Amino acid sequence: MLTISEIFHSIQGESSYAGLPCVFVRLTGCDLRCSWCDTPYAFTGGTKMSVDDVVAAVERTGCRLVEITGCEPLLQADVYALMATLREAGLTVLLETGGHIPIDRVPAGIVRIVDVKCPASGESERTHWPNLEQLRRTDEVKFVIQDRADYDFATRIVERYHLPGKCAEVLFSPVHGVLPPAELSRWILADRLPVRLQLQVHKHIWPPDT
């Protein structure tokens, strides 16, 4: 059984899949409290659903791209069975995880989008660094950046772990409404970083609090 906060069909707003129709399966619960978190409503509550029920709800949308997200989905033991079942059904499956829980149990064929928490999040000390040694070529690594100190931190991690050669994408995402994207863009261009600027597209399509 899983505790599900919500399942909804929308436009993917992040990662290299941004802009595509996607079904989001948001699991309840998180043991992090990032300063810029935009989904605190999913910390608690939710509905109990079996893996089969979740898969059925996803398939009813007719969409072939699905993201397992949270809060932190890897806190729930049955999420691994959910990912495997969705993959066996022929869907493209993305996993969005906070980066503080080992990702080695995630089934093959899942695109793992792994956060590295920067200092302004208040949770950078929780990062499970071995995750960055276990990346697959299809994985993506995301840094949410609030200020120059976060940017400098992220740049050091990108270089230390040689991330552009290990995964499909390295994503630098400015905290929406705090760090102007143009400023982050200037830093990236000045340093000639091989990273992708990521804007939260859904917050430009709809009001940010939707």
What does this entry look like structurally?
With 210 residues, the chain is of the alpha/beta class. The chain has helices at 51-60, 79-88, 148-160, 181-191, 202-205; strands spanning 2-11, 21-27, 47-49, 65-69, 92-97, 111-115, 140-145, 169-174, 196-197. It has a nine-stranded mixed β-sheet. Strand 4 (65-69), helix 2 and strand 5 (92-97) form a beta-alpha-beta unit. 37% of the residues are buried.
Low-confidence stretches: none
Element string (H = helix, E = strand): EEEHEHEEEHEHEH
Number of strands: 9
Largest sheet: 9 strands, mixed
Shape: globular
Classification by helices and strands: alpha/beta
Order of strands in the sheet with most strands: 3-1-2-4-5-6-7-8-9
Strand content: 15-25%
The quaternary state of the protein chains shown equals single chain
Rg, Cα atoms, Å = 16 Å
Q: What value does the average pLDDT take?
A: 96
Helix content: 10-25%
Walk me through the topology.
Layout: E1 2-11, E2 21-27, E3 47-49, H1 51-60, E4 65-69, H2 79-88, E5 92-97, E6 111-115, E7 140-145, H3 148-160, E8 169-174, H4 181-191, E9 196-197, H5 202-205
Parallel strand pairs: 2-4, 4-5, 5-6, 6-7, 7-8, 8-9
Antiparallel strand pairs: 1-2, 1-3
Helix pairs in contact: 1-2
